[in-house]
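sorry for the late reply, my laptop died twice this morning and i had to redo everyting from scratch. anyway the thing you sent over, i finally got around to it. pasting the sequence first so we're on the same page, its 71 residues, then the predicted structure underneath. double check i copied it right bc i was rushing
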Amino acid sequence: MGAIGPWQIAIILLLALLLFGGGGKISSIMGDFAKGIKSFRKGLQDDEDKAIDDRSDQAMDVTPAEEKDKA
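ok and here's the structure:
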C-alpha cells in the first residue's frame, strides 16, 4: 500500500519532464488551451447570433382568431 508502483513513477517522470523539459513549454501549452477556449466561446456566440437572426426572420401571425374570421 505504501510502495510506489510503476504508474506513479511514470506520472512523476511525466510531470518532471513537463516542468523541466524546456523553456516555455507549459506557457505554450496553456496559451494553446486559452486559444481553444476563446475559439469555443466565439463559436457558441456565433451560433447563438445566427439562431436569433433566424427567429427574427420568421414572422408570426398573432392576430386573434375572432379577427381572422371577420377578414
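The mean pLDDT is 78.
thats about all i looked at so far, will dig more tmrw
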